[in-house]
Amino acid sequence: MANETFDVVIVGGGMGGLNLAALLTQAGKRVLVLERGGQESLGGRAASGRIGGAAVDNGIKGLIMSGSQDEIYRRIGKTLPENVCKWTNSGQIYMNGEWRELDPLLQRAMDEFLRIYKGTAVDSSYEQLEDLDAISIKKFITDRTDNRDIIDFFDYLGWLFGGTLPEATDYSAGSLFYSIKKQVDANGFMPSQSYWVKGGSGAIAKGLIEAIKENGGEIRTGSSVSHIVIEDGRVRGVEVECGDKRVVPTQLVDTKRIDAPVVASAVAIWDIFNIVSEDDLSPWFRDRIEHLHRKTLNLCTLTYGVDRADLWDDSGQRWVQKGPVSGRPWCASDLRYFDDEERYEISFWMQLGWWDKPNIFEMRKAAHKIALRKLFDDWEGDVASLFPGIAENALWKVRSFGPATLIETPGNVGRALVDVEAEGIEGLYLVGERTSAAKIMGVYGSAHAALAASDKILQKYPVGSGSSAGVSASA
Ligand SMILES: Cc1cc2nc3c(=O)[nH]c(=O)nc-3n(C[C@H](O)[C@H](O)[C@H](O)COP(=O)(O)OP(=O)(O)OC[C@H]3O[C@@H](n4cnc5c(N)ncnc54)[C@H](O)[C@@H]3O)c2cc1C
Q: Structure pTM?
């Protein structure tokens, strides 16, 4: 029996894969998305679960808006879910044992702040901003001003994005300003707040799934791709696991082949070598992926469901530079993800870098679990001390931990990343935050990469060209 055939097969039903599938089906391509997880996994790291009437995110809290997800929604004729972020100020920061307001700090130096912030994002070209990819925010700002308030604010911005990096401001200036410029160009305003998705981050995936199905695309969950078939330097299709699985861990499972002239890998960077043979890639490309793989940021989240408004004063997001018990920096904010408006979530997050967990595959080891439990216990001590009442009055609590994204350090973004079109392999595309097109990490980065990949695929394999020829051969 002939193999099934599609114009494009996309491996991974996270935001990168769904965004690309939505764009290509809209353009008329016959697309198959293969996701190894169940239906609830669609959206990948940006999926949301549910507890007691509330959407609970897999991890994401504040998406850094940068125009690309909006652009995809516009192209597919859908409306992005509402932004439920209420605050527009910059929140508060807990430094040296006291809370400090960030707004007064900024107001004191607004003119100079605008000169640098707006001047750089709006007046520079994208090419000029890419020249800042390898420069840290710290260097960027201290080269331009000696105003302490401004330096503190950028320090804080670096901290916000760079999290608990050893060098607090060691975050790429190019990455920050590129995303601001993208948003100004796409939406016509400077970002003053991030985007918290009504219904949880998983709500963004829903619109994409609808669009894919409306345009004749297919999504198969529970479908794990064992590898991308590459012969003579060109993609031929994928092998998908099938039949009885996992009776014993070492069991070799059966696979079936699906043919396609174009395959896009939309899996996270740590999964790439599960599906692409290292031997198929050029040494440079392979080394680059391995280098990036080690630059992964892990993220811990602590989420409480609460029904007492007096436990939180709604004044915005707060950053704790050094928790009184954990001694670690983290961030807290409230979100309204409950169906019932009387109740809401309070969410805390903390970033851990590769120096804490040198190899993400090691994370499953018991020793790390013990270390993580201690970290969460100490962190809850911080919460009890700084926000009394939240832990005791919680309706429920979720502790979660996982590899979040790549670290946006200088030299680790933009031009330092790989192209969406895989070097030297005809028909293979890479979508996601590890690509130069992503510019920023996270959901908006995946959306940037999907836009770039879609444009390249449609240019090289126009609808109605040879790439669609095998459609009728489908089983
Ligand atoms: C805790 C946490 C907090 C985060 N916070 C933020 C935030 O605040 N803002 C932000 O913008 N971003 C945040 N991120 C990052 C963001 O979630 C990711 O950058 C983004 O969702 C990546 O999308 P992706 O499609 O590229 O990858 P993924 O979401 O990882 O999708 C890849 C998909 O491929 C599937 N897959 C893997 N291997 C196979 C295979 N062999 N066959 C079939 N399917 C396969 C996986 O199951 C998965 O669904 C956070 C992530 C985490 C984990």
A: 0.92
